[in-house]
Design a protein that fits this description.
The chain is of the alpha/beta class. It is built from 29 helices and eleven strands.
Length: 664
Amino acid sequence: MIETEHSGSVLLTRRLLWNGVTGKPPRPQPVVLLLGPVGAGKSHALSGITDHLGWGVVHARFDFAGDEPTPVDVLIRLAYNLSRKWRHRAQPRFLRFTVALIAVGAELTTTDRVRDKETLRRLLVEFRRSRWPGRLDPLVRVLVKTAATAVPAPFGDAFAAEVPALIQTVRPRLGHILRSLTEFDRFKTGDALDALVDLNWLARGREPDPDGVTAWLTEAFLADVRENHRRMSAPERRSPCDCVNPGKQSHVHNWVVLLDDVDHPGGLAFLKALTAARETYRRRHGDRGTGDPLLVVATSGKWDGEWERELARAWRPPWQPDGTAARVVPSCRDASYDDWAEHPETARPSGYYPVLLEPLEVQEVADLLGDDVPRATAAFVHRASGGLPKAAKQLAETLGDAPVRDGARDVLGTSGPDPWRTWLAELRLSTVDTEALVTAAPFATAPWLVPLPEHGLVGQPHVGPILTELRASLWVNAPGNGGGTPDHVTLHPWLAGNLVSALARRNGGAGPTYAAQFTALRGAPGADDVRRAYCLLALGDFPAVVDLFERDFPELPHREWVDRLTVVVHAPDAQPLDEDYERLYGKLVDSDVERKPGERTEIRNNLARLLAASWLSANPFAVRGPDQNHDIGTALTALSSKSQRSDTKALDDTAKLAFRGLWP
């Protein structure tokens, strides 16, 4: 199977699935964080990974949406799911973990160690000797009832449902377990019963320590993973395998745990417990290439504040445009094990590996919409949605069978009831209500205009919290290069398009107008020429923007000039939606001629054509066609021929992109 047949998330999992050569110690594994805003297809990505793993790789899945599980709840569910029967393999047994749960559930005095050790010994012996499941039932019921009061906030019925099944799998081996528990680090300072009594006292003593219980059980869980993997790590001859591994030699796979919505309650706590247990193991054993063969792939729709502190010197938040002491978060297709493990000297190592889910390509959008959808419709949906899967589906429902005509601007409506506020409300941005978000559209759609540390520019309410929410919710991204202005970052086109469309068509009395807000933004302190030109174009002062770019054309290096132009032509467009591209293009060029009717140079004429065509074409909700591509490319080629500078390659390269519909 070739790589292009895989989604980015599946491709990354294939690269990380290889555990090592048979018989060698496992190499450390990351906690992969699949990051993307609402509707980016995070749950779909995990489903794709699950389908790809099939029965060939031991794996389990947990979703944090809904209830608020503790780390122990999650461990119980994962141990239960990993313990199912796998084709051509022995059944995993979580011996240490299950015995630890029995110890947590035992009713001990929590004051008399000798007496408690004897009570616990008798309980374990009784479990081991009970040959018939019926004799175990009363013991299991008592255990589950008492343990449920000791382990904080059990997750629904998970404890009652999964723990008895785990006990049934380990009961015949309890005697062996007690003899072998001393191999586990927690038992190095005494015998097994001493350690189990200590655990019971942590859970049920006069001063319970839930964090201590969590650490204990997490380390036991990972120790069982290592032991089971060794026992089940013979070459997987009958397992389908297309993992990425060096030389295709005899090898074993990691086990995989898939966690959905870890930004929901309980998710962050579980990841902290897991990474803390791994770090404890590393400190005890040193960097000898030993770890647990467990690959964790988790999805998150937020960049959590806790990660901000944990990853501060390891990974740069996706919206930060620069930084020397952190690493850039890669996309799934660019990510690999070596990229995570071989960190630069300027960044500290991290147990986490944050990666960004890629947007859909045009063909993927076409596949999503169905076989009968014209290519032009798929291309429009791709541009309008920014490749966001949820948005692509919403647009498909809105469009129905309506034809998509080149140059049309009214595909999503013109006035009156509109879909934009509905789509904004479905993004679940919790800091402010939808109308406040629409009011802040000029500041949100161009967050690079507002320095990161500032929170309340030009007296605008909610701007600071809104920008913080948009960054944390992964709607803001810093481009890899270029930018045209310091601190250049961009808002996702789906969100940006909805915000400005809703503001431009806001009914009277609902709040400040589009013109008033962009005028306020234009007057913000510290505005440079690029920022002013952006606001002037958004306000429709087209000739003033042509003036600025005509002045700079012979002075600035053409690469820098093009970078600035790219930023400015992505300014919002509040031009009438019921007039198509050709009509508006002519009106804009005519407005510049009227402003400067005297001697006009060829450079000025082509600049007016270039700006008009580029600005109208950059609107993601307008349908772009061959005429726009031709107008933009032709104007850039003409400017290149008239330039007196020697660096015209930047203009020629941009023209080639424009003819293909790839710029701006």
